[in-house]
Structures are given as structure tokens and as C-alpha cells.
């Protein structure tokens, strides 16, 4: 088995896709004409967004992500060689600042922002094994 998709439920799929394209330089793969589902190219795993109403259509409820509430107990992590530049770009395109880039004891540099929906995003250098 392999991880194929990460799907986040959001209020506005199109707006979220545009944010991730601008903030993190990702490429849009697909946005359904209904605006209820879209995907971004991130490598071997697809980052997807579904409208909050899709959860109900699928037979369950979700707690919506909100920028003014505590973030969900999960995060996306984007790996880059230049955390400072990526962090600055994300903030300039509407990301919410959480923690400026800082070194970790294992040698990695890590920063945290929240997306326009309030979901936590880590920006980090690769871990040197």
C-alpha cells in the first residue's frame, strides 16, 4: 500500500488551490467544475481539497478548520532548501505566522504557518540522515 492522497476539507476549494499555488509554488492538477474538489501536484502524493459539504455527501461530519481557532492536530510539511525564502513568500501571500524559521537539534531548519483555512503547514529543510 502507498499514500496516494492527502485530502483537506475547506470552505472554498478554488481559493485554497490558488493560495497553495502562490504561497508554496505548487501546480494545479485538477479542479472539478462544481468547485467541490481539486488537486495539486506535489510529487508522488497528491494534495487534495474537498469542500466541507463533501463530508456530508460522503456520510460523515468534520470539524471545519478555522483561522481563529486552534489548528487541527495535524500538519502538512513542505521540504525546501531555503526555508527563510519559502516562509517569507508564504507570509506575503496570506499565510498566518506561527513560528519563524529556527534550527532543530538534529540539524533541520523548520518554520510554521497556517494556511488561509487555519490548517498548520510546516516548511522545513530535508533531514540529513
Strand content: 35-45%
- Based on CA atoms alone, the radius of gyration comes out at 15 Å
Mean pLDDT across all amino acids? 95
The biggest beta sheet reads: 4 strands, mixed
Structural class: alpha/beta
According to DSSP, the number of beta strands is 8
Order of helices and strands: EHEEEHEHEEE
Give the number of helices: 3
Biggest sheet: strand arrangement: 1-4-3-2
Residue share in helices?
Answer: 10-25%
List segments where confidence is low: pLDDT < 50 over at least 5 consecutive residues.
none
Distance between the termini: 24 Å
Q: Please tell me what the overall shape is.
A: globular
What attributes characterize this protein structure?
129 residues; 3 helices; alpha/beta; four-stranded mixed β-sheet; 8 strands; globular
Protein model, in words:
This protein is 22% helix and 36% strand. By secondary structure, it is of the alpha/beta class. The mean pLDDT is 95.
Short description:
With 129 residues, the protein is of the alpha/beta class.
Sequence-ordered SSE layout with sheet pairings:
Layout: E1 5-10, H1 13-24, E2 27-31, E3 37-41, E4 46-51, H2 52-57, E5 75-79, H3 83-92, E6 96-103, E7 109-114, E8 120-124
Parallel strand pairs: 1-4, 5-8
Antiparallel strand pairs: 2-3, 3-4, 6-7, 7-8
